[in-house]
Amino acid sequence: MHYRKKFCVDPGSKVDLGKVDAGFKDEHETHQDALAEIEAHNQKLHDLQYLMYAEGRRSLLIVLQGRDAAGKDGTINHVLGAMNPQGCSVTGFKVPSKEEAAHDFLWRYHQHTPGKGQVAIFSGSATSPSRKSLPRRSNLYA
Asked: pTM, whole model, 2 decimals?
């Protein structure tokens, strides 16, 4: 199956989660059945990370946003499990501290962006302040 076609959502389109099969398994009924494919994808992730590190020109930032217990930690474990941990970092973002709130809203993120050849994961909870509570664009650089 071509998962990208099945799960990709076009910009501006609406998603009806009631029509999404939460028990979707495709051709693999069990984890054991999918193990060979998982290992092949893990090896590809490992190889691509190594090439990105060796090239030293690009970085990768993965942003995970979801409610508590949405599976962000499990996703991080699966993705980073395939990579060299020396080239990866994970930063969790909760409610901003007083110091962070005293700066523009991107300040705390810039400190943790990945360097060349590095991978960074930003993990944010939906219980963190919503986008509605962020300052208006005109106030960002006041």
From this structure: 0.72
